[in-house]
Amino acid sequence: MGRMRKLLIPGVDKQLLVRDALKVMPDLSRRRFIAGGASLGALTLLTGCDVIDSFSAESMLTQISKFNDAVQAKLFNPNTLAPTFPESAITRPFPFNAYYALDDAPDIDGKAWKLEVRGLVENRKSWTLDELYKLPQENQITRHICVEGWSAIGSWTGVRLSHFLQLIGADTKAKYVWFNCADVDGYNSPLDMPSALHPQTQMTFRFDNEILPRAYGYPMKIRVPTKLGFKNPKYVVSMEVTNDYKGGYWEDQGYNSFSGS
Questions:
Q1: Beta strands 236-242 and 221-223: pairing type?
Q2: For residues 179, 76, 47 and 173, what is the CA-based torsion angle, rounded to 10 degrees?
Q3: 232 DSSP assignment
Q4: For a designed S-S bond to 165, which of 45, 170, 257, 261 qualifies (C-beta 3.0 to 4.6 A apart)?
Q5: Who contacts 15 (Cβ-Cβ below 8 Å, separation ≥6)?
């Protein structure tokens, strides 16, 4: 999945550290950094980290990753839509993608499933699948872009997340909506509030005009076409509106939390 390099031995290879730092910088910062003479000294000035061992090297890369998130968040335009496509462009079969085999994907009983709502909301009632199906739904044909380098176009139908947040009286001035999933390893992921309110961000219940298959996240996934694929959690069981950054499955392993356009 392209995780950041782990520097596990005492001492630091300066060239490798600079190379890893370049990987997690936004494009504009990367170009300026290279033009200014990429060096360990320049990284120290940029992050304020004095690199003396592998632990401080990891701290430096974390600082740069946070900087990357901040820059992307500043550049995000909530009115810019991800491209949409005709039905003829849909990728069939649409690939299954996870860090486990399809046979190990959660097998959820939709009749017993409920979406738990927590945090900074006025109405914390749990929602059944039938209740969610009755809400106004929209269709989008958008591209899923994986951090591994491939992409595929799918047809997704569901409820605007912004509509649902309004319905439950969410504090939309909060920083995040944090999702927990039914995956065996407890997959979770935060979504910044501006992205949660984007008009294409969707609580998805159908794929290609059929009930969302198990492979793609039944009974509900969060479709965020302005983000990389790992920011589109599947098998969602709860959402929490919060000002606290709670991390996420891939975010805790070094991936940028914003990871979008």
A1: unpaired
A2: -50
A3: S
A4: 170
A5: none
